[in-house]
Amino acid sequence: MSAKKSPVWKHFKITDDNPKKVQCQICQVKLAYHHSTTNLANRLKSVHPMQSVPAAATTQRQRSLDQMAKTPLPGKRKRDITDGLVTFIAMDMRPVNTVHGAGFRCLMDKLEPGYTIPNRQTITEEIDKKYTEVRGILCGIIKNSPAVSFTTDNVLI
């Protein structure tokens, strides 16, 4: 990195006698310099923390595979997964707090790392919407039927 671009150069100067050495302007210690400011930034961070520069200012790093896998999903994909999650909870009569379980979160992270599981309130609202939608469909079917029969099991204790 060029001496003119990194903010660490406010605190270091290349020595006159050796271009592979720099001198700290705070404590006058000489350090090796091989065209990278990483060790200079680390020196500031460990020995002169009040003078250190933010990590983002010293280097731009490539995203790791984990970070790339956690890329947010497109809206349609996210919506489809949330709909599937709501259907799973409703059809299998699972408690809504299933989404907070460590095992469930681990499973979802393996299946779709970029998906952020909605909170309990959002899931509950989605279940209410699904109920209203299905209720409307069933009411329409019942209204258009010539005859309807209901049976129940009545257990008295």
Automatic annotation (TrEMBL):
InterPro entries documented for this protein: Znf_BED, ZnF_BED_domain_contain, Znf_C2H2_sf
UniProt main location, coarse: nucleus
One Gene Ontology biological process: post-embryonic development
Gene Ontology molecular functions: DNA binding; zinc ion binding
Gene Ontology CC: nucleus
Domain BED-type: from-to ranges: 3-55
Record localization: Nucleus
Keywords: Metal-binding, Nucleus, Transcription, Transcription regulation, Zinc, Zinc-finger
SUPFAM superfamilies named among the record's database cross-references: beta-beta-alpha zinc fingers, Hermes dimerisation domain
UniProt KW Zinc keyword: yes
Official protein name in the record: BED-type domain-containing protein
